[in-house]
Amino acid sequence: MATATKLLESPAYHGGTANARGRLTLLAVLLVASVATTAVHYPHNYIAVTHYPQSSFIPIGYDGTRLLVAVGWPVLTAIGAFGLWLYRRGSYPAAWACLAVYSLTGISSLAHFIDGSPRIPPFWYATMFTDALAGMAILAFVYVGVVRERARPGAR
Predict the structure, then answer these.
(1) CA-to-CA distance for 149 and 156, rounded, in angstroms?
(2) How far apart are CA 60 and CA 57, in angstroms?
(3) What CA–CA distance (Å, rounded) separates 72 from 76?
(4) What is the CA radius of gyration of the chain?
(5) Cα dihedral 9/12/16/20 (nearest 10)
(6) What is the rounded CA–CA span in Å between residue 106 and residue 112?
(7) Residues 6 or more apart whose Cβ sits within 8 Å of residue 112
(8) 111 Cβ contact partners less than 8 Å away, ≥ 6 residues apart
(9) Under a CB-based contact definition with an 8 Å cutoff, are residues 81 and 34 in contact?
(10) Helix 122-151 × helix 18-47 angle, to 10°
(11) Per-residue pLDDT of the chain (156 residues; tens, 9 = 90+)
């Protein structure tokens, strides 16, 4: 509840129109959905690493993959949270950069298919696609924000 209250007190929410409030709410929902789906998929990837094809273009092996998952997910998630924080404060260009980087957390789940097909149950397949959809939705949010800003009168 404290997070929702902080969202309502942010400059992006208070200082703007209903559309600005709606965009902030949409961003928060997209981030929550992305964190939820990746929080399910990434631990499975760590635990069941031998069931996922190993990358031919980043030959780091199972231990390297586990390290990448264990470090990458928290770092990227922190970048996404920082992007929301920046967005709430009206620092849109920096927020969009952070959010675009964070979107890779979900989109990169499709990389599992580059070198084959994971040997996993359907539920875990579904998490790869929900990760990707959430990441693409966040990247679309960023794209629309950048386009709107550039179209605004007086924008450079």
Answers:
(1) 9
(2) 9
(3) 6
(4) 17
(5) -120
(6) 12
(7) 52, 53, 118, 128
(8) 55
(9) no
(10) 150
(11) 455 445 444 554 444 566 888 999 999 999 999 999 999 999 999 999 999 998 888 889 999 999 999 999 999 999 999 999 999 999 999 999 999 999 999 999 999 999 999 999 999 999 999 999 999 999 999 999 999 888 877 766
- Other CB atoms within 10 A of residue 126 CB: 13
Residue type (1 letter), 156: R
Residue 32 half-sphere exposure toward CB, CA atoms < 13 A: 8
Residues 105, 77: contact at Cβ < 8 Å? yes
Q: Which two tokens stand for residue 151?
A: 């179209």
- Which residues of the chain form beta strands (DSSP E)? none
Q: Cα–Cα distance between 28 and 7 in angstroms, integer?
A: 9
Query: Quick one: tokens of 120?
Result: 């996993």
Residue carrying structure tokens 């927020």: 95
CA dihedral sign of residues 81, 85, 88, 91: negative
Among residues 106, 148, 146, 151, the alpha carbon closest in space to that of 129 is found at: 106
